Amino acid sequence: MQTNPHRWFGVGQSVAPRSRKAGAEAAAEAIGGREAKAVLVFASSSHDLPELLAGVRLEAGPDAEIVGATTMGELGSAGVTDGGVAVAALGGDGFTVQARVAQISRSDPRAAGAAAAEALRGLDDENQVLIVLADGLSGQPHEIVRGAYSAIGASVPLVGGFAADDRKFDKTFQFYGTEVLSGAVVGLALGSDGPIGMGVAHGWRRTEPPMIVTKSSGPHIYQLDGEPALDVLLRRNNFEGSAEEFFDRGRSLQPLGLSRRSGEDIRVIHAGDDEARSVWGTADVPQGALVWLMEGDRQALIDGAAWSCTEAMARLEGMPPLGVLAFDCGGRRAGLIEGGLEQEMQAMRTALSDAPFAGFYTHGEIARVRGALGTHHLTLVTLALA
Amino acid sequence: MPSWSSHLLTEYFTAVNAAADETAAIASAVERATEMVEAEVGAVVREGRIFGAYGFGPVVPEAQLHEVAAGQPLLEVPYVGELHAVSNPLGAETGDALIVARLSEPFDPAERQMLQGMGQVLGLALRSIRVLAAERHLRAEKERQASTAQTRQRLVESLLTIQRAISARRPLPEILDAVTGGAAELLGGATVTLVLAEGGPDRRLTVASKCGDGTTPPESLARAAMAGGAVVVRPDGAGWMIAAPVRVTGEMAGSLVAHLPGVGGQQTEQRDQLAAFAQQVSLALTDARTVEAVREAHHDPITGLPNRALFLKILNRVLASRVTLADPTSVLFIDLDRFKAVNDSLGHDAGDQLLALVARRLRGCVRASDTTARLGGDEFAALLHDSPPEAAEVVGERIVAAIKEPFRVAGREVFIGASVGIAISREAEQSSEELLHNADVAMYRAKKDGPSRVLLYQPYMHAEALDRLSLRGDLQRALREGEFRLQYQPLVRLADGDAAGVEALIRWESPTRGFVSPVDFIPIAEEFGLIVEIGQWVLETSAVQVARWRRDFPDLGLNVNVSGHQLVHPRFADNVMRALAIAGLPSSAVTLELTESVLMSEPDLGKAALHQLRGLGVQLSIDDFGTGYSSLAYLRELPVDELKIDRAFIARAELTAEDLALVRTIVELAQILGLRVVAEGIENAAQLAALRGLGCGYGQGYHLCRPVDPEAVPEQLARAQVESPVGVLDHRSTA
């Protein structure tokens, strides 16, 4: 381990049951005795979160920016954990960081995105990226990301994820310093004199025939092709029973792909209502959109993970990666149960040439490198630093 | 167009048209378009300004965006680089455009085509929002008038109560208390005081009645109203004081004063109301049995003219008192043209002002001994004594000329007109109502011939009015006796000249009337509720017929016109499906044509039935498309498959640039939405060529094929396949 590197990146994980210990343990591993500029914390909402952050602060020192979010599982070089914590830390003269936080207003979710993007103000590093960690249950993730994009424009890429709460879909938390917030957007602006690379890939494919969303409102889908949406999903899955039974089973998460220029923009449907025969996920499904049910076999998903990492690495101008932040969709886990997760981690390790990585399973991923669209689902988004 | 782009258009279309205002529509359009083509930045240039700039961050390169709108294909964005830009016009005439720009690669032709469509959709949406906003404004104005009308109604009721008290000779203090109480109630809790001048040299003022516990008004205000003989309005702290003069047999007797605390704004309405109550006081104070009191009860308050009841009384008296039939009495029925427009646009007060001015001019057109009256609304009447037809016509012309002169109302020049019907009493036994009715009939007939006409009643006009009633009976018989028949006009696919379908057209050969045009009998059938039965007959008959022809021409479709009255019939969808089932015609072969005006006047009309039918495979066509405004709104809401461009845009010997631009827009809109376009009224080869050039898919018209009897249809269909007037296939035509 270098002693006084110009730029450094480290990761740590812990499954310690006591929250303060878990936070301190993972942070200590990630920081490794260096002076951290930023510490990113991804932890299960089952932890005593203020305690956990107190543990992190203990190791990070008073000046490090701490940001983070609760998860649907944590991931890192050491593997996938549930109910644990994963930490990434970075520092050195080559990095500049600045953090901002904003509460999401129901009537104007964009404002929060724009306010979090203020973190970039004053940064003049050659390479910049805005890392966004936001509440995953606001119902308007696209608007938050559009807000951030409208404030910063196309000159700076966006990356990040929407917080989750294991699989409770009840309340998610965001971390800013040692504060535990909900309904918030945290922005961490990262400047570097070294290259920054990003990768996005999913590994799902369309199941024909496509359907038109004939009635929807926000993330709620009421009708597909004029038929109650729940009925359609149950029929296409040859499933008889209630919505609860359906979404509680292994195949519970239903990825829908919206037709887009370069493939699909994916939405995850995770719940349904037997009375209204409607289904919903966490992001808008516009009425009038053409959607496909998406399916993915294990190998395709694992290939997607490898591709995302490879793509991010390829943008590092030939430099070896210091490490990678990974935002993996909680929905992908559904397709990777029973050993698939370990395979995915192994594929990432290989693709990253064993560079350290840490991240979490999200309620939605944020990645904008080209184009204007920055919100994704069922993807693996990677941010590689060199 | 690659599939992903057409998929996105519906989504884009829905989002843009869901916007409530122009800003939201622009923001929605720019963001959707930018995201959909994976561009980095977007903006709208409109009326020389930049709107909805997206993806630029804090600094928007406005000058460069204007250059892109002017045709520059590259856009330099600071810290991002040089982007491939494309400008998509929002409409044909202006320089307004939707701009998007992308870093990675130039836009391919399919993307450009989609973006052009997006620009046009946004342009249409923005125009539609403007129209809707104007409509909303109008509606708000109407609602305001309705509430004014309600207040007026309460005022009238309150005044009637007082009038009854007066005529029942209730004690004077009780009547005066009823006046102040009624006024206080109507003015929403104001304190209303009646002060009366006593006799004697100094005419001291005393309070005769008071309702409410506010302060007694200053004497000076009451005196000001009495001295000026007019209502005086004066601000008082946070509220207003209003004083209305009270006269007794023409002499100033006192003042009715209201104190309205904490009321803002103009006090026009309250002032008028108080003045009305003040009049009641005058009435009560004057002997209710005097002629003056009768006058008030029988005169129109706005114009001061006798009202309908008094006019008829006077007319009765005149008719009864005639010595010989040699001195005829003429009644003129005068109806204002365009009064409603003035009332709607300038407001009720202006309307009243105009009516008063009209009354004054009318009085100036007749002798002092003649009577003029306001019958109600914008209808007036004049009664001319000893006036032969010729003299009455001269007076009528004089009235028309006088009303034609501009009026100055609410600070502006207003132009209206009048139509005059004249009836002359010839028979001894003629009643006043009958005479007035005849004048009305003549006026109705005059109006039908055009504005500003004078027409003398003739018995045939009465017959004409009756005719509408008898037409109803004849229509019922026609249905019963099977006098209707159908003709069919092919819808021709312009690309190859094949008949894609036929439109069923109803014909009525009445044994008593001869050939009656649908233009004449359909409105009557609608008015009398016969249209549902007639429409069903057309559908059933044509469905059987087309099902038969389809044995030889299996792809033949049927277009049937549907009236709005059919649409709202609760069993409409059932009736349609039953007719098709009986005929054995698949629902997908049938297209129902609805006129744009029906869809516009009642947007929710029969929507459920249409969706139900669409769900069963029946297709929907918008007839006369382009003649209405809010086209986009219902295209979004209704499951439309086909647009028929109104013949008005096509049936000219030479199509103008505007016609072509409009047709092009409709064709492109239809392509975006995946709809068929049928051009109606193609009458010559030039029109046909122009329409094919624009990519219009289908056409109808005399040049292609006239409507023919069913016997001749198979021959026409067969001939169309062999030799077509469409001629050589044009490579630009699309099916």
From TrEMBL, chain A:
Domain FIST: 35-228
InterPro entries: FIST_C, FIST_domain_N
Span of domain FIST C-domain: 229-369
SMART domains, per database record: FIST, FIST_C
Domain of life (superkingdom): Bacteria
Pfam families registered for this protein in UniProt: FIST (PF08495), FIST_C (PF10442)
Protein name: FIST C-terminal domain-containing protein
Organism, as annotated: Paractinoplanes lichenicola
TrEMBL record, chain B:
InterPro entries (alphabetical): Biofilm_reg_signaling, EAL_dom, EAL_sf, GAF-like_dom_sf, GGDEF_dom, Nucleotide_cyclase, Rev_trsase/Diguanyl_cyclase
Highest taxon, organism lineage: Bacteria
Domain GGDEF: 327-459
Domain EAL: residue ranges: 468-721
Pfam families in the cross-refs: EAL (PF00563), GGDEF (PF00990)
PANTHER family named in the record: BIOFILM ARCHITECTURE MAINTENANCE PROTEIN MBAA, DIGUANYLATE CYCLASE DGCP
Protein name listed in UniProt: EAL domain-containing protein
